[in-house]
Amino acid sequence: MAGPLPLADPAPRDGLLPDSVAIGADARAFGVYLHVPFCLVRCGYCDFNTYTSTELRGASQADYATQAIGEIVQAARVLEAAGLPQRPARTVFFGGGTPTLLPASDLVRMLDAIRTYLGIADGAEITTEANPDSVDEEYLQELARAGFTRVSFGMQSAVPGVLATLDRTHDPARIPVVVRAARAAGLQVSLDLIYGTPGETIHDWRTSLETAIAERPDHVSAYALIVEQGTKLARRIRSGELAAPSDDLQADMYELADELLGAAGYSWYEVSNWAASPSFRSRHNLSYWTGADWWGVGPGAHSHVGGVRWWNVKHPAAYAGLVSDGASPAHGRETLDDGTRLVERILLETRIADGLAIDVLGADARQAVAGLIADGLVNGEAALHGRIILTLRGRLLADAVVRRLIG
Question: Exposed, middle or buried, 399 (CB in 10 Å: 0-12/13-18/19+)?
Fold first, then answer.
């Protein structure tokens, strides 16, 4: 289980939003994130808000779909009461945890509720995450028939020893099996990878990349391992059982990923994400990076609508109790001021290949752009056309670029 929720103002019991959220809403996309907080086992590196069966303490996995639907009904009421226009969801994303630990029929019920109470736009992107050992062809076909368009498999590595260090339980031989099954169902496929695991070599990482590329997924995510405090992995490193990840080796691994994926026809569109074509970019994740609105359903889920951000109680039992009582499950809320929204825009939009408009920056930040170009962190030609777009070196040092732009 993850650490405590952020400090903020308490959220109202009825969950109602201020009228200000409706300002400019027609120009903002709307999506839905649905968090399924269940896992078969806890991976040693994970600090997400997830729970194994022994950690549920009275919450029922079997009742979860009904509880989530209760929040979806609340969302429709709250959005209407705030005077927001009808905006069918352009993206829906089931994340976790492992959404596919639930029966496919539960995911379909929750998707149908979103369609009924919030609306789903024509051509919407509808994704679920899945572990390779949690689905089969029949399961994926049921999702596709219900309107799912995309599945994101947590591959992480093709090397058994690396998976063991991460406490991942799936057999890497399952990857081609589930990719074929997803293709047969008509679903787009994304493969998620992690690099920098203690003990992982550059050869191991090349093996994982080449194995993923051989499956010709539509999309690949590659994330550097972050050792989160409070996790089993952090304890193993602190005790000396495992060596901490090497920043230099992770940089080499990132460069290798960009090289191999680029040679295979994939283009980066966000620092950790590559797509076979622009049409295969994760539209849901892009909505986060470009300041769209979304409602997060489920324990610990975060939402953002019109500059108001809130997050739900974390434990499934607390969440179930609030929703069953007709109360909002939101725990805390904050209203973003203009300065915070600008900082977040710089932080997020500099990470995407479309870049950040220079004209949103203050005078000091605009003056810093020339130095970033001179240091090889920002594309000079793009800057002449008014956009800050990171070079490969800039992607490796994205946090440093942001610090210089926000002063």
Answer: exposed
